[in-house]
Specification:
Elements (H helix, E strand, L loop, with lengths): L5 H14 L11 H8 L3 H13 L3 E4 L3 E4 L11 E2 L2 H10 L1 E12 L1 H7 L5 E11 L7 E9 L4 H9 L5 H9 L5 E10 L2 H7 L6 E10 L5 E10 L4 E2 L9
Parallel strand pairs: 3-10
Antiparallel strand pairs: 1-2, 4-5, 5-6, 6-9, 7-8, 8-9
């Protein structure tokens, strides 16, 4: 049996708290009890509890356990990405609504962001990311840039909204992810983007640029995503080098 992803455990615990199974003021089962309950590792359980803490549902204190502080999340959307696996999980759980597909010429600021020459041609797939129904406020807006010859991928992106575009490229063209280079910066939402994301102009947001490289080190996809700050977060794990 496959071990559950930490996001699955976090979701079940969130539902249990919301239903009153674990009322405000109560203490959740210990890490060891949850480990045995879900037949997973203690590390996975800790990651799930960290998600609940990030949402404001629980507090954690040494020798005091995990206490339920609220029955409702602090904000409705807060997916966290810390690995390629998390990115795939995000893709499967958040509906992609393709808004447009067009061939464009990259120049000026866009060419600099994509790290390509002025005049380079790309196929751009622009989408909204939705958590829940189509009427839910968007988690973000993403422009994906791929080889213009991959028009079949653009068509598949509409038909398979839960599959990452990089996975579609791998399935159809055999180019798989060996590395993702990611840059994150704070931005203020423009008027055009504010209308797309249903927020006020000037709202704080995260702009994330990801470059997808294959085993040869060649870039086969670039994405630029804008996420309202209160609907998204990015996590990373830092480990001490053995050297």
């Amino acid at each position: 049996m496959n071990r559950p992803h930490f996001a699955d455990i976090a979701r079940e615990l969130t539902e249990a708290i919301a239903s009153g199974r674990y009322p405000v003021g109560s203490v959740l089962p210990t890490e060891l009890e949850l480990r045995d309950q879900y037949q997973t590792s203690r590390h996975t359980v800790r990651a799930a509890l960290h998600e609940l803490q990030q949402m404001g549902l629980v507090s954690r204190r040494k020798n005091a356990g995990t206490r339920v502080e609220s029955a409702r999340p602090r904000n409705e959307f807060r997916p966290t990405l810390a690995s390629v696996d998390d990115l795939v999980q995000f893709g499967s759980e958040h509906l992609r609504l393709v808004q447009s597909v067009e061939e464009i010429v990259a120049e000026g600021r866009l060419a600099k962001t994509l790290k390509c020459t002025d005049g380079a041609r790309w196929l751009r797939i622009s989408s909204l990311r939705i958590d829940g129904g189509k009427d839910s406020p968007p988690v973000g807006w993403t422009d994906v840039y791929i080889d213009p010859d991959y028009i079949d991928v653009a068509e598949a992106a509409r038909e398979e909204p839960g599959t990452l575009i990089s996975s579609l490229i791998e399935a159809r063209h055999g180019r798989s992810i060996a590395e993702i280079q990611q840059g994150v910066q704070a931005v203020l939402v423009s008027q055009e983007m504010a209308e797309r994301l249903r927020v006020e102009k000037g709202t704080a947001a995260l702009e994330i640029v990801r470059r997808y490289l294959d085993s040869s080190g060649a870039t086969f996809e670039i994405s630029i995503s804008v996420h309202p700050a209160e609907r998204f977060s990015v996590a990373m794990r830092l480990k001490r080098s053995d050297v």
